[in-house]
Amino acid sequence: MVAKISLGNSLYRALVYNGEKINKENGRLLATNKIYNDGTGKVNIARAYQDFKSWMPTASRTERPMVHISLNPHPDDRLTDGEYARLAREYLEKMGFSDMPYLVFKHEDIERHHIHIVALRVDTDGRCVSDRNNFYRSKDICRELESKYGLRSSERQKITPDMPIRKVDPAGDLKRQVANTVKMVGMRYRFQTLGEYNAVLSLYNIRCETADGRVNGREYHGLVYFATDDAGNTIAAPYKASRLGKFAGRDAVEQRFVRAKDKIEPEKTRAIVEPILNSCNGKDDFVDRLKAANVDVLFRYTDKGRIYGVTFIDHNNFAVLNGSRLGREFSANAVEERFNGNRTAQQPTMSVVPTAQSTSSQGDHSQQTDGGQQSQPQSPPTPAPNTTQQGAQQSVDFDNAPILPGLDLFQTGPGFDPQEEAFYRAMQRRKKKRRRGPKL
Question: What are phi and psi of 119, to 5 degrees?
């Protein structure tokens, strides 16, 4: 339990701050001493202020006659209203406020429930409750109450690389969990890109994104972190890296990218993955056997289910590596061909021999290149080879298969999309119409 103590002279401001939250149903009044309480859990701010004023001395040398205390148990401790009230009374008694007028409020406006105490420090004779060494006394009292009531210690724990990392629990203190996980991942794992960084964070339901922009004419480049569920959906507002700590900032993360370059040893991870890949009986078997070897693999898919990214997280060597870093046979294209390449081969295919009409029609169309420029019309192609029998025996390499001029519309695999073809033909008709000019 953590106690925060503030001494002040604005009693009314402290009452308004707590009373408005309580009256908006973001908490309740738990206990009072020498102050009116109607038992509804609400507070009459004006009445409470007058009661406090009646107990204040007419003359006092104390410049700050009131104290505002918040008691914050560990987020995982769930206490009843009665337990909160009893905890507050014992704390005030040990701090010397048992006979002073006070109010105890429970705040529920955030997930971490806690209590606030507003009390006077001076009695009617003008004598003040001593605040000497109140910080150390308060800390000792908190440890004593934690032991008495079986509460968790809220003292800041030192994060070490060997501490276990757990998934984010939506019922706990999200900010604290995200900060601890990000710090431990940065201390333990080595990665060289933001994608690899996100791959290991995703195991613990955290996502990181860049935040670039301009404020008051000055550019900023930062990171924001999201807590997610198991499906990757965001479950809370994002946290700026500056709220978590310097270790989560963009400069710190990019420095880890640079340092990891010389420390990662891909051959160690390859020695684990390669024999499993060569002997597995499919993707599911590959994933299960890797997990048994303490290696996680994450696949990224297109909307059509094609694998376009593979990342290996080696918990034995604390290395995060995209598949291409291990070798060409571990890249996304190679893995897609190995596990999903037979989907196209199992479908019946036919050899296509273009007629004179189709070849001449294709010759009139100009083909788009990758750079967006148009190439000159190609000469009529030769007939395509028959793939009916060989397609069922070997997988098709969609990335490296040559595209025959004039027959690219009939190539098998993800390269052919009927919607794209319809759009392409519509654009060609519009171009011809523009060349002819409008009809008069």
Answer: -145, 160
